């Protein structure tokens, strides 16, 4: 479904990604792990086209998307929830969802109801400005917005970072249900136990290189702990 080959990117002259390759097969959940600053967010931003690739290739459903704009990738079915749960803070919850619906390829109103079924906690909050929600609720709204576009692949950057434990569980369950429903997911997650519960496969980045990859059960070994410990 998603294939990344030899991806290179950086900021100005500072190179961050050094030939990163990964595959997300249809319906699979692949977890990208690694310490702070190793390039996880840079990888996702480059996969989505928010940052230009200086080398390598991104293929989505057999199509080379490396030179497409982010909105073009969204329309092809790549949904992205960036790190830090971005929403439109002045807009109400429902307007956050409707703005995304307007920009979607399908514009089917039913997609808003479907997204709210995944995050029922948002239903009583529809008229509230997004900026007034808690961090966890904003994360759910950011994920609901991505779902409104009816993605074939959902890309999530640390969806549980800095969020109160009660909502972490709800977010984890939502990711689990979406995965079970057949959605392909590329997840950046720093917590090993969460990754172990959710992922089919994983890769570990270190200083912009993939240093380990494998099936989720391989995450239990000693070297993995060494690569993830600070
Ligand atoms: N906008 C930016 N401009 C310059 N350097 C950046 C920018 N964003 C991230 N970096 C640097 O790129 C490296 C990787 O960052 P990032 O991809 O955010 O890592 P991670 O998500 O794994 O914590 C870090 O050294 C970081 O300081
Ligand atoms: Mg990051």
UniProtKB/TrEMBL annotation:
Keywords from the named record = Amino-acid transport, ATP-binding, Nucleotide-binding, Transport
A Gene Ontology molecular function term of the record = ATP binding
Q: Which InterPro entries match?
A: AAA+_ATPase, ABC_transporter-like_ATP-bd, ABC_transptr_urea_ATP-bd_UrtE, BCAA_Transport_ATP-bd_LivF, P-loop_NTPase
Q: Which GO terms describe its biological process?
A: L-amino acid transport
Ubl conjugation is among the record's keywords: no
Q: Where is the ABC transporter domain?
A: 2-230
Is the keyword Oxidoreductase in the record?
no
Per the record, the domain of life is Bacteria
- Family named by the database record: Belongs to the ABC transporter superfamily.
Q: What is this protein called?
A: Urea ABC transporter ATP-binding subunit UrtE
Which species is this UniProt entry from? Microbispora cellulosiformans
């Amino acid at each position: 479904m998603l294939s990344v080959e030899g991806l290179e990117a950086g900021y100005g002259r500072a190179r961050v990604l050094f030939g990163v390759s990964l595959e997300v097969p249809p319906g699979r959940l692949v977890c990208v792990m690694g310490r702070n600053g190793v390039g996880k967010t840079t990888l996702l931003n480059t996969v989505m086209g928010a940052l230009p690739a200086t080398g390598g290739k991104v293929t989505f459903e057999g199509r080379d998307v490396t030179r497409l704009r982010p909105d073009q990738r969204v329309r092809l079915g790549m949904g992205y929830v960036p790190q830090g749960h971005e929403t439109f803070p002045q807009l109400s919850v429902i307007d956050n969802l409707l703005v995304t619906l307007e920009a979607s390829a399908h514009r089917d109103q039913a997609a808003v109801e479907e997204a709210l079924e995944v995050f029922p906690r948002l239903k009583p909050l529809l008229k509230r400005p997004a900026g007034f929600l808690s961090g966890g609720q904003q994360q759910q709204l950011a994920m609901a917005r991505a779902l409104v576009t009816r993605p074939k692949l959902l890309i999530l950057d640390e969806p549980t970072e800095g969020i109160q434990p009660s909502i972490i569980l709800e977010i984890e369950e939502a990711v689990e249900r979406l995965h079970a429903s057949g959605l392909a997911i590329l997840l950046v997650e720093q917590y090993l136990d969460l990754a172990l519960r959710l992922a089919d496969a994983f890769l570990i980045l270190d200083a912009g290189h993939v240093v380990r990859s494998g099936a989720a059960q391989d995450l239990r070994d000693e070297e993995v702990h060494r690569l993830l410990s600070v």
